[in-house]
Amino acid sequence: MIHDPCTHINQDSDEQGSLMEELDVQILQVTSKSEATRLSVGLTLVMLTIVTVIYLLYFPPDAWPQTLMVALPTTLILTFSATYLVTQQMLRVHALNTELQRLVSRDRLTDVATRDFFFARLAERPGSFGVSLMVDIDKFKVVNDTYGHPAGDKVIANVARILAQEVCARDIVCRFGGEEFVIFLDNATATIALETSERIRVRVESSKVDSEGRSVTVTVSIGGSLRQAAAEIETAIRQADAALYCAKHLGRNQVVMFSDLSEMPETAAGHSTSIRSLPRTAAGH
After folding, report:
1. Cα(132)–Cα(149) distance, rounded to whole angstroms?
2. H/E run at residue 10
3. Phi-psi category of 127—alpha, beta or left, where left has phi over 0 and alpha has psi -120 to 50?
4. Domains annotated on the chain, with CATH
5. Residues 143-147: contacts with CB under 8 Å, at least 24 apart
6. How many angstroms separate the CA atoms of 223 and 242, rounded?
7. CA atoms within 13 A on the CB side of 151
């Protein structure tokens, strides 16, 4: 049975997602070349109709053939040419705006969201709840020192690809800085977050990146925190970061969830946390 990473989204969210996809398709059609052509043809037909009605109303019947033979082709050529040029210019502007938006909102190396876009998008969802995950590539400096920075870039891009594949459309994957990522699982419970995190951990651990004929493997440590609807995302990220530190302290390649501050004594980092950790798989340990 193939796992569906989006099972934590409720029916209302599914309907909202479908609506957004439908709207996206409509926007794409309006800004496509075929739609631009249809718009030009439509406007041209409207102008031909208007010109025809005017001539029929204000010119005598015996003048219709001669005048319409001149007016209609002229209207056709001028109107279609003008509207086609305008719509093509609109397409170019739209393409430039789309590319600019992509450059602003997407990390160039990984094509996941930038940090600024992550916070801006969540600010648009003040009532949302879910789980924030902090994902950090273990011993990444060793990768750079051993294989070089180009290999390190490939590793970061590969991890980002896995993260993006393991979440659904309403979730947000963000490159938080360097080899660290933040994920917001929209409407997810702690249980779902643990399962998603473990899938990510296992996939990263088993994934290989080729660098000049050498195979590079890495692991990730993950910390998570539940965000209530009224809670600030910064608070959830700080808690997830504390859980991430605990995952590192426990030996890396771990999934740790932050829960109740009052139930856990301070860790070696000075964080006061309550954590649950999924057991690591036997492979590679």
Report:
1. 28
2. none
3. alpha
4. 11-105 (no CATH), 115-278 (3.30.70.270)
5. 143/216, 143/218, 147/211, 147/214, 147/216
6. 7
7. 20
H helix count then E strand count, the chain: 8, 8
Report the relative pairing of strands 220-227 and 255-258 from DSSP bridges.
parallel
- Please count the other Cβ atoms lying within 10 Å of the Cβ belonging to residue 237: 22
Round the CA-based radius of gyration of the chain to a whole number and report it: 28
Nearest Cα to Cα of residue 15 among 130, 170, 122: 170
pTM of the model: 0.63
Do the Cβ atoms of 129 and 225 come closer than 8 Å? no
For residue 61, which amino acid is it? P
Higher pLDDT, 194 or 128: 194
pLDDT (tens digit, 9 = 90+) per residue, 207-243? 999 988 999 999 999 999 988 776 788 889 999 999 9
Pick the closest to residue 4 from 169, 174, 159, 166 (CA basis).
Answer: 166
CA–CA distance, 163 with 155 (Å, rounded to integer)? 12
Picking from 55-59, 98-102, 158-162, which range would have the lowest pLDDT averaged per residue?
A: 98-102
* Residue 192 near residue 129 (C-beta atoms within 8 A): no
As given in the structure block, the two tokens for residue 48 are 């031909």
Q: Is 179 a catalytic residue?
A: yes
What are the pLDDT digits (tens) for 238-250? Answer: 999 999 999 998 8
CB 261 within 8 A of CB 273: yes
Q: Find the catalytic residue in 22, 35, 124, 179.
A: 179
User: Does pLDDT of 67 surpass 60?
Assistant: yes
- In single-letter form, the type of residue at position 190 comes to A
